[in-house]
């Protein structure tokens, strides 16, 4: 069945992976949403279509609300499989009726609710449509146009779909590369699309759409008594404004509030469904709150169009506000902003350190190469899993920076002797002429044994018990998982070099301090975000490494004769300072 316009999202189930990604980018997402919402607000104010200059001979007409505040109104709620409705005498279609609802007044009687069970028809079970038709009228007035007492100025209505259409779940084409028969049977089970698109498989053939049931229908009457110029209605309000043609005034705005209706709450409609829950509510909503919901939804759409947010992530963000502690949420937002600041400062000082560094004495050059390999593996993994272009760009920039560091840590030459030019890497003299290279080789030698055992063991486990698209995907996923789990081991060679040299003066301590602060923030997220206990414990592994660094800084005294990260020694600086002071004394004497 063809899909309705705009209904392209998929039902998403939040998992541990989404919760972990949410920990890293929650603060950035909140900041981006607020920034875009404010931008859209001012853009609608300053860049809305300009009004034509008013003709002095013709007075400007200001449209006003046809209803008064506190005026009692009646409501009728009908369900029909047709988008157009005029069968007002059908008692079976009328689901709900309320009387004397005070309009735009915040009182207990202004909110009405109803919970019921709906029994779907055979047509609805087979991808049929269902619409909610809501009508309002002044108390005592009919809504049926065939009634003799019917008056158009006293009633209004809106239509809203109760069944929406989403892409059908795709079959999981991952398979056991070893040919496990049980796993082959599981590969035919339908799996749910994540974030509105298949994250593992390319689209093949036409997309099949199925209907989903909305269990909650919230009808809000907007508290809006603004007098709008006839040709100057704000563009964000104009689509919702229902104008009465004879008086050129508008009816109360009806808003079907689906802001808090998460997609994992939708119910799939098929032949096996015999009954469906339906929770109805009619209540007032302020103009500010209504506009806020619109601006946030618009910011979500802008983020999705730019590729910085996937469809499921907006639901996960709303879930945090629904299920999270508000105080804990505020602390998390503040700490997330600190995390972003420390990330930027660590990145800036890292670039400054390697840009000004003139000596590799005491630094592990092979760790720089290993970091480049790890970043490149992660980039290939993201590329294989159809990640958004913004994350790919960020990872790609990280790969380029790590390669640039190799050029600072080693000499790179282009060998053009063969048919294909090749890159040759040579150790710098400050690295090879002292004990640094010897200690680095020893550390990498033993580290390679440990890493080899871990990588081989995890790869065999993944091959035996997990499903993959291809052998290439298995290699990438195994290497990437090892990088995430055992990446902290890459810092161990530097610890060994520090231990042998009995010095830590050559380290970029400012950058490491910012990284250590970010590690503490990650520890906080480990308690805020729901995750398995083993993953929660693994967050603290970086703390152990940094604590060892701090212990080494405390144990090994500062050697002022050693060259620092800028290529200068402490004694040289004191000699230069003494020469300058002597020259100044001579000038004073003369």
Automatic annotation (TrEMBL):
Q: Where is the signal peptide?
A: none
Q: Which UniProt keywords apply?
A: Membrane, Transmembrane, Transmembrane helix
Q: Where in the cell is it found?
A: Membrane
| GO cellular component: a single term | membrane
Annotated region Disordered: where? 1-23, 173-200, 571-590
Q: Compositional bias (Basic and acidic residues) at which positions?
A: 182-200, 575-590
Q: Where are the transmembrane segments?
A: 327-347, 368-383, 389-407, 446-465, 471-492
Q: How does it sit in the membrane?
A: Multi-pass membrane protein
The UniProt similarity line reads: Belongs to the CLPTM1 family.
Report what the protein is called.
Cleft lip and palate transmembrane 1
């Amino acid at each position: 069945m063809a899909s309705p316009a705009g209904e392209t999202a998929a039902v998403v189930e939040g998992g541990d992976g989404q919760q972990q990604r949410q920990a890293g980018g929650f603060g950035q997402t909140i900041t981006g949403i607020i920034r875009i919402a404010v931008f859209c607000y001012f853009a609608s104010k300053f860049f809305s279509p300009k009004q034509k200059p008013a003709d002095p001979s013709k007075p400007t007409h200001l449209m006003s609300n046809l209803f008064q505040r506190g005026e009692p109104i009646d409501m009728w709620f009908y369900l029909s499989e047709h988008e157009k409705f005029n069968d007002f005498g059908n008692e079976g279609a009328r689901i709900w009726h309320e009387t004397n609802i005070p309009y735009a007044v915040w009182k207990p009687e202004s909110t009405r609710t109803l919970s019921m069970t709906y029994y779907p028809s055979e047509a609805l079970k087979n991808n049929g449509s269902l619409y909610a038709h809501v009508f309002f009228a002044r108390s005592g007035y009919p809504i049926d146009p065939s009634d003799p007492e019917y008056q158009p100025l006293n009633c209004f209505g809106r239509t809203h779909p109760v069944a929406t259409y989403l892409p059908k779940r795709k079959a999981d084409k991952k398979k056991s590369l070893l040919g496990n028969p049980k796993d082959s049977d599981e590969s035919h089970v339908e799996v749910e699309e994540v974030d509105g698109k298949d994250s593992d498989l390319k689209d093949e053939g036409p997309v099949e759409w199925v209907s989903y049931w909305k269990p909650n229908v919230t009808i809000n009457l907007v508290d809006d008594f603004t007098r709008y110029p006839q040709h100057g209605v704000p563009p964000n309000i104009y689509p919702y404004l229902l104008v009465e043609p004879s008086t050129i005034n508008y009816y109360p705005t009806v808003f079907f509030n689906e802001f808090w209706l998460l997609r994992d709450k939708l119910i799939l409609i098929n032949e096996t469904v015999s009954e469906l829950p339906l929770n109805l509510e009619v209540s007032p909503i302020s103009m500010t709150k209504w506009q806020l919901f619109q601006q946030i939804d618009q910011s979500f759409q802008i983020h999705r169009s730019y590729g910085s947010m996937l469809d499921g992530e907006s639901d996960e963000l709303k879930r945090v506000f629904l299920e999270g502690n508000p105080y804990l949420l505020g602390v998390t937002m503040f700490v997330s902003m600190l995390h972003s600041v420390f990330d930027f400062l660590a990145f800036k000082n890292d670039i400054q350190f390697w840009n000004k560094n003139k000596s590799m004495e005491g630094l592990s050059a092979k760790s720089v190469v290993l970091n480049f390999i790890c970043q490149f593996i992660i980039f290939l993994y993201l590329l294989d899993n159809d990640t958004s272009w913004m994350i790919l760009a960020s990872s790609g920039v990280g790969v380029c920076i790590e390669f640039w560091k190799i050029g600072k840590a080693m000499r790179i030459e282009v060998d053009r002797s063969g048919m294909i030019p090749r890159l040759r890497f040579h150790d710098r003299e400050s690295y090879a002429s002292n004990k640094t290279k010897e200690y680095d080789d020893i550390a990498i030698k033993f580290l390679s044994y440990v890493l080899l055992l871990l990588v081989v063991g995890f790869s065999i486990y993944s091959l035996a018990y997990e499903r993959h698209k291809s052998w290439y995907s298995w290699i990438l996923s195994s290497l990437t998982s090892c990088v995430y789990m055992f990446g902290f081991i890459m810092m161990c060679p530097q610890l060994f070099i520090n231990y042998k040299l009995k010095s830590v003066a050559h380290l970029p301590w400012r950058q490491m301090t910012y990284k250590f602060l970010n590690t503490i923030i990650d520890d906080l997220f480990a308690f805020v975000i729901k995750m398995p206990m083993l993953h929660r414990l693994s967050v603290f592994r970086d703390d152990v490494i940094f604590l060892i660094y701090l212990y080494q800084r405390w144990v090994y005294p500062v050697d002022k004769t050693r060259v620092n990260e800028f290529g200068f020694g402490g004694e040289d600086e004191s000699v230069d300072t003494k020469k300058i002071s002597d020259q100044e004394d001579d000038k004073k004497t003369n």
